[in-house]
Amino acid sequence: MTNHRCMSLLSTGVTVAAVWSLSACSSGPGRASIAEPTVDVVHPPLAYDCPRVDVAPAFNGDLESGAWKMAAWTADYRDIEGEARVDPRFRTRSKMIWDESNLYIGCEMEEPDLWATYDRRDMIVFHENDFEVFIDPDGDGDEYYEVEINVLGTIFDLFLQRPYRLGGPAEHGWDASGMRFAIHTSGTVNDPSDRDEGWVVELAIPFEDLKPPVRREDGGEWTIPPITEHLRPTVPSIGDTWRINFSRVQWDLEVHEGTYRKVEGRPEHNWTWTPQWEINMHVPERWGMLRFTGG
Question: pTM of the full predicted structure?
Answer without folding.
Answer: 0.88
